[in-house]
Amino acid sequence: MVALGLMAAVPAVAINVGLSAPDQIAQHFAVSAPVSQLFITAYLAGYAIGLVPMGLSCDLFPRKQVVILSLVGFIIAGLLSLMGKTLTIILIARFLQGALGSSCAVASRAIVRDIGGTNSAKIMSSMLMILALTPCVAPLLGGQLVFWWGYEGPLLAISAYALLTLVLVHRSVPSTREVASTEKPTLLTYYSQIQRFLADRKVMIPLGLICIPFSGYLVMLSGLSTIFSVQYGYSAPDFGWTFALCALFYPAATFAARQLLENGSSGRVLSVGVFFFLTSLIFQIMYLTGSDPGEFVLWTAVGLYLFGMGLLLPVATAIVMDKSPTTAGFSASVIGTSQFALGTLGSATNAIFYNERGTTLVLSMAAVAALVAVFFALSIKEEIGIWE
Question: What is the pTM assigned to this prediction?
Fold first, then answer.
């Protein structure tokens, strides 16, 4: 399980450890801040483009084999970025890392579906608990590495993490999707799968419970630091440490989800998650309507949001994956692509309608909380089997 968790976290580590690198890149290569931010953007672009091809590959070939080959390529791209003498080479290497690293996100979910059976939600909770620790630890580690070794520090750490993951995957992760060629999905299978995704409300509803909260989370990442800097005078280190502590609500919730699943149904876990989203909504309304809301109100709203998300994501993901036994890799890529697309849309909306108080950001969080409640109500109405 540790190996699966580390594998699932490869993309998150590659992003979060590198968050402090753009400033050093701007100084080293004498480029503007927007250009240096391409260090993050290049990885995200590769990740977004790689999801579907990697999902297809994980269905057509043994999933473990796909991950091992991808991690080898990921490490080679990391070495290329370390040896690169120009920013262009570094950005190309980061793009390749994003595309190859997407296999880890896709394959980890698909393997859980292969080996989990009726315990898929519990295993998914354990895996996501490891993944959820990444935003708590990686940015702090990345900042320290930049302080010690400049922008090369995070690049070296990302490659070292991938090497460790490669060793653990080779030794500990079971090989799944070892099927005869006659059993492998064809293009017609994927076409039918897309049709089923669009037509089956019992898939689309839990998919909404995965993608909508995560999109709000990406909006928070894009604008929360600015709100606390402008409104409450937080320095970058102050915000980093405070957010890291607040982000602990997410892994705590994934642990709680696993415990609740021991003696209850998926529906019970989802209902508790919705409760936390609605409680967060109360504090969001307090922030929006208050003339001078304190920082505690916003931090509380964020913490409750993260706790609710940590309860919803593992359970809803397991439900979606269980609906697609023959094309689990493709289904995992659909989840990732949907999360990324909605998150990008939300972040862009927040940027376009930005104001110093962060009204747009908090309104986005409030809209997510309301939509989560709506989708949960639909899950009860459609009887998707969450109470079994």
Answer: 0.72
DSSP state of 175: P
> Which of 16, 36, 41 lies closest to 25 in space, CA to CA?
36
Topology (CATH) of 186-388: Growth Hormone; Chain: A; (1.20.1250)
Give me the pLDDT at residue 181, please: 44
Q: What percent of the chain has pLDDT over 70?
A: 81
- Give the tokens for residue 285: 């309304």
Rounded distance, CA 293 to CA 284, Å?
Answer: 10
Position 180 pLDDT exceeds 80:
no
| Single-letter residue type at 268 | R
Exposure b/e, 108-146, CB count within 10 A at least 16 = b: bbbbbbbebeeebbbbbbbbbbbbbbbbbebbbbbbebb
Q: CA 272: distance to chain centroid?
A: 21
The predicted model gives 303-317 an average pLDDT of 90
| Cβ-based burial of 255 (10 A; exposed 0-12, middle 13-18, buried ≥19) | middle
Tokens of 23: 């400033």
CB-based contacts of 180, cutoff 8 Å, min separation 6 = none
CATH value of 1-184 in 3.30.1330.30, 2.20.25.90, 1.20.1250.20, 3.30.565.10:
1.20.1250.20
